[in-house]
Amino acid sequence: MKPDLLIIDGYNLLHQDPKLAALLRSDLMAARQRLVRKVENTAHRMAPKTIIVFDGQEAGIDDSLTVRHIEVCFSPSNCSADTIIERLVCRYAAPEKILVITSDHAEHETVSSAGAQVMSVQEFLAQCERDSRRSIPSAMRPGERPTLGDLFPKDFCG
Description:
Blueprint: E1 5-9, H1 10-16, H2 18-26, H3 28-46, E2 49-54, E3 60-61, E4 70-74, H4 81-91, E5 98-101, H5 105-113, E6 117-119, H6 121-134
Parallel strand pairs: 1-2, 1-5, 2-4, 5-6
Antiparallel strand pairs: 3-4
Helix pairs in contact: 2-3, 3-6
C-alpha cells in the first residue's frame, strides 16, 4: 500500500550517508539542505507529503528548508525527534498509511507497533540512488551532461 505520509528521521539519515555525514561535520545547514535535495524526488514518488524531523533547540518548521511536498521540522529541546515521530504516528487517523524512514531499532519497534510501516535508512538511500540514476538518460556516456531535450521521451512532441 502506498503511504499517505513519509516521515524521515533526519539525523539518522544524515549520519548514515557517508557524503552527508562528512558535510555534517563541517557545515550543518548545508548538510540539511543537501539531504532535502537528495530525498526530494524519491520522497515525492513514494508519498504525497513528507516530514523530515530533526532534533533541535527550538521547536517548529524551518521554512528555509521546506519545499513543495517536504516539511522540515525540529523537535523542542525537551523532547527528541523520535518522540515527535512517535506522536505524529500515534495521532494520525490511519497510522498504517505512514512510512517511517529510520534505522533506529527502538524507533522501528515503537512506530511499527503503532501501525506504521518502516523502511531502513540504507534501503531508502539505495532507492534515492536508483531514482537519481533513472533521471539521467541511459544512452549518456560517462562524463557527459544531459541537455533539456534528453530529459523528455523521444515521442514527446508527436
